[in-house]
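Exercise 7b. Backbone tokens:
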């Protein structure tokens, strides 16, 4: 590989890898909201949860982040607040007037 192409590849990867890591970490919020909604919908409608979106695959995909959450209380609180924020934004029908939870979602 010519020297110029090698440096270009290193330069591009220097941006792509950190951006993908940030996207991975930030994707936990919307993913959590989707999985949680799937869970509550299956309970409220007395039907089995979706086979594609389940807690097992969520925990497997986000295992590194969950591990870090377990080891660091500050990060745990930060990510928990972020996941709740995403859930509220994606599924506002679970909340009544912003002053409590109405459909089974709680702290």
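Sequence design result:
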């Amino acid at each position: 590989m010519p020297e110029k192409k090698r440096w270009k590849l290193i330069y591009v990867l220097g941006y792509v890898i950190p951006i993908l890591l940030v996207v991975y970490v930030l994707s936990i919020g919307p993913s959590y909201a989707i999985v949680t909604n799937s869970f509550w919908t299956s309970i409220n409608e007395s039907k089995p949860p979706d086979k594609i979106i389940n807690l097992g695959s969520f925990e497997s995909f986000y295992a590194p982040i969950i591990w870090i959450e377990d080891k660091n209380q500050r990060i745990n609180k930060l990510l928990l607040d972020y996941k709740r924020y995403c859930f509220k934004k994606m599924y506002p029908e679970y909340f009544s007037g912003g002053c409590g939870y109405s459909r089974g979602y709680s702290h």
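Instructor comment: The radius of gyration is 19 Å. The chain has a mean pLDDT of 82.
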